[in-house]
Amino acid sequence: MRALIVDRSVPGGLRVAEAPEPVPTPGQALIRVTATSLNFGEVRHGIDSAPEGAVLGWDAAGVVVRAAADGSGPAVGTSVVTLGEDGGWAELRAVRTDWIGVVPEGADPGAISTIPVAGATALRALDRVGPLLGRRVLVTGATGGVGRYAVQLARLGGAYVIAATGDPARHGDGLRALGAHEVVESPARSGGRLDGVLDMLGGAPLVEAFDQLGEGGTLVAVGHSTGEGESFPFGALFGGADRHDRSLVTFLLLCCDGLHRDLTWLAGQVAGGTLSPEIAWRGGWDDAAEAVTALLERRLHGKAVLDLA
């Protein structure tokens, strides 16, 4: 089968080549991939650390060509969206059925392929904040793939949404169109105590955002794009009358139960137009180096999609 394999001798670290077809276990279905989306984390860290010739890729949309032998998951011919630790950048992918969502017929595979990491991470992070109706929620790094889904989902859940971006003048209109009530430059400008924070950045912005939490507030550490550690000044973790019972939580998406339900629901929302996939770049197999470079240089605000069909 054709695949994008790791080859650090070429621009972008990926090239199209022949690779062995995956052999599904009894609990896996075999998917013919039609589109995949790239994530900053897998591009930034995966290509550098993977063995030469490896087939990476977390996100992929396609069609079931062999159902799971154990009877679980969707039938042959079903349009699906899939999540996995690797294997998404190839014509064929074997994937656990509990990481497969069913997609409405006729949906754009490229749009659907943006869902697994970005959409499901945003959804699960908001679950950890708790009930959203009437709550004040801050999303840092709001112009990225996860951030854009988080803004939309938080607004859909009834939250008062504050989006933080380093350039509000440039990105403010777009983030407001997605559902943000306010767009600010930094967490310190969020304008009052917060009930929840979804932080995509880590480092100093996370520390600053945690300081804005009010009583019962939760910060979910989602991303770490600053590449910096977190240093809390003395007193930052003290309780107080308006700072009682604050939490900082983490999670790993692939350890979450019920992801097939999340992926199916999110696919329906994207296919129906309730959620925008926010595709910032789209191309084919041979354009992968361009997408990788744009992601690493932080020139993309949204998702990068490769059409493999």
Automatic annotation (TrEMBL):
Enoyl reductase (ER) domain: from which residue to which, for each copy?
Answer: 9-306
Annotated SUPFAM superfamilies = GroES-like (SSF50129), NAD(P)-binding Rossmann-fold domains (SSF51735)
Which Pfam family, any one, appears in the UniProt record? ADH_zinc_N
Q: Which InterPro entries match?
A: ADH-like_C, ADH-like_N, ER, GroES-like_sf, NAD(P)-bd_dom_sf, Zn-ADH-like_protein
User: Protein name, please?
Assistant: Zinc-binding dehydrogenase
